[in-house]
Amino acid sequence: MARTRRLLQALVAGALVAPSAGAQVLATAPAVDRLPNGLTVVTAPTEHPGIVAYFTLVRTGSRDETEPHRSGFAHFFEHMMFRGTRTLSAEAYEHRMQSFGADNNAYTTEDFTLYTITIPARSLDALAAVEGDRFRNLFYQRPAFQTESRAVLGEYNKNSASPVHQLWETLSELAFTRHTYGHTTMGYLADIQAMPTLYDYSRQFFQRFYRPDNCTLIVVGDVQRQHVLDLARQHYGAWSGRRAPTNAPAEPEQTAPRSRALAWEGTSPPRMLLGYRVPPFDLATRDSAALEVLHALAFSESSDLYQRLVVREERLLRIESWAGELHRDSGLFTVEATLKPEATFDEVERAVTEELARIGRGETPPERLREVASNLRYRMPMEAQTPSGVANLIARFLAVTGEVDGYERYHRGLAEVTPEDVARVARTVLTPARRTVVTLSPADHAPEGAVRVGPNRPAQAAPRRTP
Fold first, then answer.
1. pTM, rounded to two decimals
2. Domain with CATH 3.30.830.10 in the chain
3. Which of 47-56, 245-254, 286-295, 451-460 comes out lowest in average pLDDT?
């Protein structure tokens, strides 16, 4: 239930056997069916006897929270969807999940919400009945709504006690002046505080976005396509309605660096985030794949920069980045560094800038690039070794691209990345003009003018913009 799930993208240690350019991520392509009401059903039989992953993808995330003072509701419904229906209370729902032997969870990102259940195959029929009821007939009354909204506020308060959370929150707020990526999936504090008064709005939110044409049922493992389709028709066929349109505000191009300093009123080593504005995730070009290759070249544990700053010179406790986060709109390529006390933010920023400039000049040996791309391609099928891994892979790419086989197209795209592609995106995308930097220092060592934050003092207390 965190801001997002970050992809594990460091290179696999040791020698790996690189897949061929034509190798597939999944041995068999999933079957795709669509019910008359718009619900998409994806079935992927795998050789995992007795296990089924039953995931429901809702293509709504914090990106869709475009109304003033209504941030945080996509994440809020991740909570409310466990509150039961008219025929099955929250307690009874939880009891049923336990009786099924289910591993039941969910998470929300900027672009989607994913409900994840893994069960013994023998429980599939009974689970489909319960889940169909949950998504068609979610029901909760005002007291339960208010209780859960206070729980969400408690979650926010707990998260805001972390310096890392406040760094990310500040980076989002500073890097985006109009787009809804400017608030985290948790939402603005003032909006969360107001949630208990918005019961009627919450019902409207559910009716707008929890519609069959906005959802995909992904069933993976010891299953048969026709049986899954029959269950979907039986338990979801009566679901009706259409997703309400949302138009996330266009974010203006960033043409100059931005920065903000935070002074942490607590115990923490110095930290910094660097966010570079990057284009939306795109399968039609090689840019997104090239950025992921660049991420591994520049910031994995085997990279020159990591080895110098963390291992040999011991200036940093760690440095890492997340190029592989998929976003429907222009997002951020982020680099996070945790400094030793004697290191400075300026030297880290300078080292990152110089490394990106070196890559942009095309100084990476071609064999090194091929090794990195091969390892990244190897990781994708390795992440799909379980039914839940397969379902999660399908869901992430489908949510952002709208294509069930998006992961296969991306896998092929990684094999097509050239040294020129990597140099080009380093030179034209990861530039200082497109960079936003947020630093966090212990309060007694913070620069003049730093915003004071701490475990009991969030960086933002109210919405700064009206989308």
1. 0.91
2. 31-236, 258-453
3. 451-460
